[in-house]
Design brief:
single chain; alpha+beta; 5-stranded antiparallel β-sheet; 17% helix
Length: 177
């Protein structure tokens, strides 16, 4: 646990985040567990469809990241794990994630809530997007403004221009539209 001054003891464990090589999240999770290090890589199942078949694949919820439950002495072991690039830092120290945040992610994943992480920095003016929840479900449109965790978009195919503010969590960034 952190004391009132923010320092951590060598023996207490915390949830930290490691940055992995691209597409190595599940491998890193497995390698850490083989070393008896508690790790967590939440995955979501999606259906990929090709012309000749469909396949359900498990993709990491957080691309490039794995959570680890370690103390300071175990951090070196984590750093030496194949596929781990480094810890995510905040103010010069590995960023500590509250237990409640990990519990909330686990709860959402256990309830099979369909979720996807979209970084608002990945959304730009003019991007084509599709709404995946709400009254305008499956409507397509163009981003005209990004406002924090919402996008302002013009909806297509309604025989008129409708401008709507939609939470980023409710859209699919679609470069193939």
């Amino acid at each position: 646990m952190e004391n009132q001054f923010g320092s951590r003891s060598n023996w207490s464990r915390h949830w930290l985040v490691v940055y992995t090589r691209p597409r190595w999240e599940k491998k890193v999770d497995r390698l850490l567990k083989q070393q008896d290090i508690k790790s967590y890589c939440p995955v979501r199942s999606i259906t990929n469809q090709w012309a000749d078949r469909k396949k359900i694949v498990d993709l990491p919820l957080f691309s490039g990241y794995v959570f680890v439950w370690v103390n300071e002495r175990e951090e070196y072991k984590v750093r030496q794990t194949l596929g781990v690039l480094n810890f995510i830092y905040y103010m010069g120290k590995p960023a500590v994630i509250r237990d409640s945040v990990i519990e909330k992610i686990e709860e959402l994943m256990n309830r099979n809530v369909a979720c996807e992480i979209i970084n608002s920095q990945d959304i730009n003016l003019g991007d084509r997007i599709r709404i995946k929840h709400g009254i305008f479900y499956n409507q397509e449109g163009t981003v005209i403004k990004v406002q924090g965790k919402h996008v302002l978009m013009v909806l297509d195919h309604l025989n008129c221009a409708v401008v709507s503010s939609v939470p980023i969590a409710d859209i699919i960034l679609n470069t193939a539209i």
